[in-house]
Specification:
By secondary structure, this protein is of the alpha/beta class. It has 11 helices and 10 strands. It has one domain: Rossmann fold (3-Layer(aba) Sandwich). Strands 6-7-8-3-9-10 form a 6-stranded mixed sheet, sandwiched between helices. Strands 2-1-4-5 form a 4-stranded antiparallel sheet.
């Protein structure tokens, strides 16, 4: 298979990735090919490096002065940490949704318009706001409230607004760091259904502690686990149905079935 064909199939390729915060070694030797237009879940115990690994993919860890990365990360065929890489431009292509909804203290409209506006979007802002809210399955609920404060929305609506805000800058990937952990079951179901719809247009990588959620929404699952020195390793990475029914490593089975973690 040619390098171009591989790049077309995988949105990220991680090769021998290691992560450090100062002298603290947190992740070692991760190798993963993350497919396009699928949902990839990263699971593992608390403090096991899941969020760090997620943020490797849009260089959010760069905001921590002590962070250092070993290995290589490619976004399609582009070296994310190469000398020509611009972290700001990377973050437009690789959107991020955080654990707790974090709408700006602005109107619903201005939350969605903010990114395109500061990025110099030359089209009609109204069009991209409406389209982003529609894709995030929020338009029908807020179409008559666009000038109201985003902070007046429910938690689930705020999280879908944050997804719409990420979509408005037209990324190709959405990273989600436990996007449902602060939501009730009904709002969680709405976000999970939205993720299934979004993967037809975007590639999605999600960190979750919820094994049922990983089993429900993801196509592939990666299991990270720290060793006795608290350095995390990729224990297993496979199609989600296989991981959850016939894992190759007994540690994966023990974690998924709740015997530790």
């Amino acid at each position: 298979m040619t390098a171009q064909a591989v790049a077309a199939r995988h949105v990220f390729r991680l090769a021998d990735v290691g992560c450090y915060y100062g002298s603290n070694h947190v992740i070692e030797g991760v190798n993963m090919d993350i497919p396009e237009h699928e949902i990839t879940a990263i699971i593992g115990p608390s403090g096991g490096g899941k969020s760090t690994l997620l943020r490797v993919m849009n260089r959010m860890n760069d905001l921590v002065d002590s962070f250092r990365l070993d290995g290589k990360v490619w976004f399609h065929d582009f070296d994310l940490y190469g000398p020509g890489a611009d972290p700001t431009q990377i973050r437009y292509q690789v959107g991020m949704v955080f654990q707790r909804p974090n709408p700006f203290p602005k109107s619903i409209y201005e939350n969605v318009a903010f990114g395109p506006r500061i990025n110099g979007y030359s089209g009609r802002l109204d069009d991209i706001v409406v389209e982003s809210l529609k894709i995030a399955a929020l338009w029908e609920e807020v179409r008559d409230r666009l000038k109201e404060s985003a902070l007046a929305l429910s938690g689930g609506q705020q999280q879908r607004l944050c997804i719409a805000r990420a979509l408005a800058v037209q990324p190709s990937v959405i990273l989600m760091d436990e996007p449902c952990s602060a939501l009730d079951p009904i709002a969680t179901l709405a976000i999970e259904e939205l993720m299934q719809d979004l993967k037809t247009r975007y590639s999605i990588v999600i960190v979750t502690h919820n094994m049922q959620q990983a089993g429900r929404v993801s196509d592939k699952t990666a299991f990270l686990m720290p060793d006795e020195n608290r350095v995390s390793h990729l224990i297993e990475y496979d199609d989600t149905p296989k991981m959850f029914t016939n894992p190759a490593d007994e540690r994966t089975e023990a974690y998924i079935t709740g015997r530790f973690g």
